[in-house]
Amino acid sequence: MIIMSIELFGLENIPIIDGNSNISLIIKDAIEKQGCSLNHGDIVLIAETLISKAEENFIKLDELTPSQEAIDLANQSGKDPKLVQAILDESNEVVRVGPNFVITETKHGFVCANAGIDESNVGDGLATPMPQDADKSAAEIREFLEDEFGEEIAVIITDTQGRAFRFGAIGTAIGCSGISPIWRRVGEKDLYGRELETTEIATCDELSAAASLIMGQADEGLPVVVIRGFDSFDTLRNVDSNIKSVLMPKQADVFRK
Q1: pTM for the structure as a whole
Q2: Are 48 and 68 a contacting pair, CB within 8 Å?
Q3: Which CATH number fits domain 1-57+131-257: 3.40.50.1980, 3.40.50.300, 1.10.620.20, 3.30.1330.100?
Q4: Among 51-55, 154-158, 197-201, which stretch is predicted with the lowest mean pLDDT?
């Protein structure tokens, strides 16, 4: 009997980042200090706040002047008007408004609460939006680490997002490189020999959710997690991958109709 297992561990030597920083080099140094190196098929998952802060992608909330739309949405949601203005600035459209949330489609195409803007783990008066191009950031980090350690790996940028019809948030992929975010299993057989007709697995989201257990949401201080031993790495290996293939076109989104 073959028992499959994977290993997850956080990198313990990632410093607090508050400005322009070379995340690739920081991760390399943390790996070397921890003595874990990188193996073929390792997947490095990085919290999006770390990327935005290192790229100095900050929103200075105190400098924003709320529009009338922001004020109206703030009254509906109970959120600060300046934060709502930041949400609007990072969005293509407002999808839904409710108590303490404004669900929007971000400029990247993600539908999520508050345009993915994060006020935690950042200085007073500041917020971090999603990275400007998480796929590009992931590719740059992957290529650097592959050169340094001589192994094929993948990099996933993660965010914490809620889900429709369920309480609680989970880790979600917002950028990737070196691995396909969707595993299309159409044509394979199930245990009874029936052919799968529609099965597609959001693999990068599943990996992100697993990594979120280690990253935490408070003061854990582990924004980079390595997943080792994922058996399907070679099957899903793709150096040209990006996160766009997981985004559902608006015309196919029955929940927005």
Answers
A1: 0.93
A2: no
A3: 3.30.1330.100
A4: 197-201
